[in-house]
Write a structure and sequence with these properties.
Structural class: mainly beta
Helix content: under 10%
Number of strands: 11
Radius of gyration: 13 Å
Number of helices: 0
Largest sheet: 7 strands, mixed
């Protein structure tokens, strides 16, 4: 059974930092692109960041570019999201997901999802 488990969310003041982690099990995640998505209250889920199988290619939503960094450790089946200079608008439930593609920033290409970790940024 494929599982993705996120951790690292919490409450932080605007301007602060958080590091989210996602641990995968149940299949060889080093063969698949990984991504982070988020959903704020009353809004649709949106793309945040993605990383290719090898880690050589990354992509970010314009709203987080320059502030967030996605990385992966294929030996440990983990993907992380370093979030700096957090803003109130970053408040959301953050999901980790994996894709059957080598790289994708398109939500529909992601097959497995975690339960999410809450990030709340106080202004």
């Amino acid at each position: 059974q494929v599982q993705l488990v996120e951790s690292g969310g919490g409450l932080v003041q605007a301007g602060g930092s958080l590091r989210l982690s996602c641990a995968g099990s149940g299949r060889t995640f080093s063969r698949y692109a990984m991504g982070w998505f988020r959903q704020a209250p009353g809004k649709e889920r949106e793309f945040v960041a993605a990383i290719s199988v090898s880690g050589a290619r990354t992509g970010y939503a314009d709203s987080v570019k320059g502030r967030f960094t996605i990385s992966r450790d294929n030996a440990k089946n983990t993907v992380s999201l370093q979030m700096n200079s957090l803003k109130h608008d970053d408040t959301a439930l953050y999901y980790c997901a994996d894709s059957d593609y080598v790289y994708s920033d398109y939500e529909a290409n992601y097959s497995y999802w975690g339960q999410g970790t809450q990030v709340t940024v106080s202004s």
